[in-house]
Structures are given as C-alpha cells and as structure tokens.
C-alpha cells in the first residue's frame, strides 16, 4: 500500500507550506513510505484529488486544499485530521497501516479519560517563578519553590497574589 500525499509545490500560502512540511516530515520520521503528488504542476493529480475527497469532507467552496492524504485510493484525511491523529498517537490507524512491531500506543490514565484530574493552586508573587513537576497524575512543587516561598512570605504580605489553577 502506498500513502499518497497531495500537495502544492508552488503554493503562495505559508500556512499550506508549513502544513505540507509537517505531514511529510512526520511520515519521514516514522519511516512510512509515501508518494508526493503535486497538484500545482499536474492537472491529473489535481482532478483526481478533487474527485476523490468525499463530499462531506470538502470545504464549503468545494475545493479541498493540500495537503490531502490517501492510502492508495482510500481517503484518510486532510491536515487537521492528520494532526488530530498525530496528537492521539494514532497515525498508523489514520493511515490504515499496521503499526510496526514494538510500537506501543500510549494509554491515557482512566482519570484523564473521565475528565478527572488533580488540580493544584499555585501562588506567584513579584520575582517568583513557580515550577511544577508532573508526577504520576498530579503536579508537585519542587523543593526550590517551597524554600523560595517561605522566604517570600514576609515580603509579599499586603500584596495580592495571583492564583492560577494548573491542570495536567
């Protein structure tokens, strides 16, 4: 199976160029074989891409913008759906490919799936930068933060502190 990435080699849009490079770079990093099909210099590629993007996935003007991704003749998606799959560590599923041996999809802890997460209130004052470490589902202050907070308490009396909620 060949992954086909339809792109425009002479796009005037920097956003489109960045999206195309993001897709190509990520596929190269994963060592996934793909073919680049230019819609700017090849009318057949442009027509094939436009005809094979499903109607419900086309923008309101009816003309899909590159990059568009296919697995042979099966439509995978555009940049936004590729990006979502990348963020969810599901690129192989998005492309319709079998993950290589040893590939592990990261599991999301159950409490994050349910929307439950540990929340920590951090107090910051002038000249104080809070650091937090993620540790097994929660945030903890570093020893440096606790020591610096103890020294700043006397300085910060009478000043209102910013309170921020940090969520993983």
Automatic annotation (TrEMBL):
Residues 95-168 are annotated as: Disordered. CDD domains: GRX_SH3BGR. Gene3D superfamilies: Glutaredoxin (3.40.30.10). One of its GO terms (cellular component) is cytoplasm. InterPro entries: Glut_rich_SH3-bd, SH3BGR, Thioredoxin-like_sf. Residues 109-124, 146-159 have a biased composition (Acidic residues). Belongs to the SH3BGR family. This is SH3 domain binding glutamate-rich protein. It comes from Electrophorus electricus (Electric eel).
């Amino acid at each position: 199976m060949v992954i086909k990435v339809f792109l425009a080699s002479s796009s005037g849009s920097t956003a489109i160029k960045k999206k195309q490079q993001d897709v190509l770079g990520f596929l190269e990093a994963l060592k996934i074989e793909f073919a680049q099909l230019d819609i700017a210099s090849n009318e057949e590629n442009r027509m094939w891409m436009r005809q094979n993007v499903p109607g419900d996935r086309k923008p309101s003007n009816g003309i899909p913008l590159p990059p568009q991704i296919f697995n042979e003749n099966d439509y995978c998606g555009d940049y936004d759906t590729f990006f979502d799959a990348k963020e969810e560590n599901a690129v192989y599923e998005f492309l319709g490919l079998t993950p290589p041996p040893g590939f592990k999809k990261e599991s999301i802890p159950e409490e994050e799936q349910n929307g439950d997460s540990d929340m920590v209130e951090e107090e910051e004052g002038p000249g104080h930068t809070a650091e937090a470490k993620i540790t097994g589902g929660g945030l903890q202050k570093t020893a440096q933060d606790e020591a610096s907070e103890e020294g700043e308490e006397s300085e910060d009396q009478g000043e209102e502190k910013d309170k921020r909620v940090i969520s993983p």
